[in-house]
Design a protein that fits this description.
By secondary structure, the chain is of the alpha/beta class. The protein is built from 13 helices and eleven strands. The protein folds into two domains: 16-187, 3-Layer(aba) Sandwich (Rossmann fold); 248-381, Dehydroquinate synthase-like, alpha domain, CATH 1.20.1090.10. The chain has helices spanning 39-46, 58-74, 93-105, 120-132, 146-152, 190-207, 209-217, 224-241, 256-265, 272-289, 295-307, 320-329, 359-373, and strands at residues 18-21, 26-32, 51-57, 78-84, 112-118, 139-143, 157-162, 165-172, 177-181, 338-340, 354-356. The chain binds nicotinamide-adenine-dinucleotide.
Length: 381
């Protein structure tokens, strides 16, 4: 049996720069403070296009989008902003078409560069636009939420949601570079920090027991730069092994099968981070029921999410049957009842990570989930 643990200390060097090495291209990732609004950033962007389209959402526009646009214009660049409403309920084909229409009206062509500035929602959307506009134009990613810094910016997945499900329409398309600038975190609301930690905890559970232990022991005062670097390194390592999710990349979906179903059933009113935190508890519970994971580990994972004050609640209008039906239509559960399961904290083994869960076990687990976490249940404070 092969384990996918890498020696993170090996990479613990001064520079916080990484490169995602792909079959056809490489994507540099810079991590640091005050990277954007600099001449280096401007000069890099200039090498990719003569007109800049900043795609952002309305919150990030006010905080940073207008400032970035002004910065470019002061440097005599032709740039403009396209701003979309915030939130996953706007990550749709309709929003994509509105962005494209604005670009067409401005006569944007292949010589332009898209700069995606925002959280994971903006990045997924802007990257999808970049991948299809004129059959593909250059893209630079500037994640501004913690979740986007540790996860959504890396790996080339782009997507929009539809009524039928989350991220069902999309493509693989990589940016020319990812600038992870910690200055943006200063304005991030508390609950968005927490959402970022859902994916960080995920990396601990699936890949790095030391990361899990350190997050468990200390819930505040983290060295965020170090944590972001570690998470990017883990994601890079997994994506490099399996770019198009034919096998091992699926471990990154731990908790996402249930999470995506809940997001869709809640009409995207529940955040991605909150939904996948429930999804990870559920996948861990299934792992115990499938006799793969020890109960102590399940309780540790559960208490981790309580320690980080995840609300762990969803609407009581959603029944176990609703979730069951939605789960079986989720593309991530490829072979119907296949779930990403874990056998211990910090590692997923190649030959058991994807397991078909017996229908009876799945249904029982869903009843447990609904009894425990629907909005009737206690809120964890
Ligand atoms: P989000 O993009 O909706 O951002 C959350 C909120 O934070 C928004 O209101 C946004 O305006 C605000 N915000 C962002 N940066 C801010 C800042 N610096 N200061 C103040 N407010 C700020 O959500 P998210 O959690 O960043 O990302 C979730 C999305 O990412 C989902 O659509 C999910 O499917 C996607 N995702 C994609 C991948 C991938 O590999 N492509 C991976 C994980 C998640």
């Amino acid at each position: 049996m092969k384990n996918y643990i890498i020696d993170l200390n090996f990479y613990n060097i001064m520079s916080k720069d990484l490169t995602l090495n792909l079959k056809e291209n490489n994507v540099p990732i810079s991590i640091g403070e005050n990277l954007v609004f600099s001449l280096d950033f401007l000069n890099f962007c200039k090498t990719l296009g003569n007109r800049f389209v900043i795609i952002t959402d309305q919150n990030v526009e006010k905080l940073y989008g207008e400032k970035l646009n002004l910065f470019f214009q002061n440097q005599h660049m032709d740039s403009f902003i396209i701003s979309i409403p915030a939130g996953d309920s706007f990550k749709t084909r309709e929003t994509k078409a509105l962005i494209e229409d604005q670009m067409l009206q401005k006569k944007i062509n292949k010589s332009a560069l898209i700069i995606a500035l925002g959280g994971g929602m903006v990045l997924d959307m802007a990257a999808f636009v970049a991948s299809t506009y004129y059959r593909g134009i250059p893209l630079v990613m500037v994640p501004t939420s913690l979740l986007a810094m540790v996860d959504a910016s890396i790996g080339g997945k782009t997507a929009v949601n539809t009524k039928e499900g989350k991220n069902l329409i999309g493509s693989y398309y990589h940016p020319k570079k990812i600038f992870i600038d910690l200055q943006f975190l200063k304005t991030l609301p508390k609950e968005e920090y927490r959402n970022g930690f859902s994916e960080i905890i995920k990396y601990g559970i699936i890949y790095d027991k030391d990361l899990f232990s350190s997050l468990y022991e200390k819930t505040q005062g983290h060295d965020l730069e170090e944590i972001i670097y570690k998470c990017c390194l883990i994601k890079k390592t997994i994506v490099e092994r399996d770019e198009k999710e034919n096998n091992i990349r699926a471990i990154l979906n731990f908790g996402h099968t249930l999470g995506h179903s809940l997001e869709n059933l809640e009409s995207y009113k529940i955040s991605h981070g909150e939904a996948i935190s429930l999804g990870m508890i559920f996948a861990s519970f299934l792992s115990v029921k499938m006799k793969i994971l020890k109960r102590e580990d399940f309780f540790k994972i559960f208490s981790m999410f309580k320690k980080y004050h995840f609300p762990l609640v969803f609407s009581q209008n959603i029944s176990a049957k609703d979730i069951f039906d939605k789960l079986l239509s989720d593309k991530k559960a490829k072979l119907n009842r296949n779930f990403v399961l874990i056998e211990k904290i910090g590692s997923i083994k190649e030959d058991i990570y994807l397991q078909e869960v017996d229908e009876k076990i799945l249904k029982k687990a869903l009843f447990w989930l609904c009894n425990r976490f629907s909005s009737k249940a206690e809120l964890w404070k």
